[in-house]
From TrEMBL:
Source organism per UniProt: Helianthus annuus (Common sunflower)
GO annotation terms (biological process): terpenoid biosynthetic process
Transmembrane segments: none
Record's keyword annotation contains Transferase: no
Listed name of the protein: Terpene synthase, metal-binding domain, isoprenoid synthase domain superfamily
GO molecular function, one term: terpene synthase activity
Annotated ranges, domain Terpene synthase metal-binding: 4-83
Keywords: Lyase, Metal-binding
One Pfam family in the UniProt entry: Terpene_synth_C
Enzyme class: lyase
Keyword Lyase: yes
Length: 96
């Protein structure tokens, strides 16, 4: 539900023409990016080495998991910014 709620918040921002602050953007898009699911899928691919407790731990979004998601999202935003700058599109989706 959190995932869908974040997509809805992004849609409301877009429809209202609202440009979120960096902190608002990070809070919402860290969830909506789906990197949490990628992290969980990576654990699943490790097979029997990973226990149920590991999955439960990852689903609580501990600081390590959250940091991985934030890092991946920021890297994605940097690439998107560079591509948009090259194509002369809108430069940024967050206020600084």
């Amino acid at each position: 539900m959190e995932y869908i709620g974040c997509y809805m918040k992004e849609a409301r921002w877009a429809n209202a023409g609202y440009i979120p602050t960096v902190e608002e953007h990070k809070e919402v898009t860290t969830v909506s990016s789906g990197y949490k699911f990628t992290l969980i899928a990576s654990f699943a691919a490790m097979g029997d080495v990973i226990t149920d407790e590991t999955f439960k731990w990852a689903l609580t979004m501990p600081p390590l998991a959250r940091s991985c998601c934030v890092l991946c999202r920021v890297m994605d935003d940097i690439v998107t910014h560079k591509v948009r700058r090259i194509s002369n599109s809108y430069l940024s989706n967050a206020k600084t």
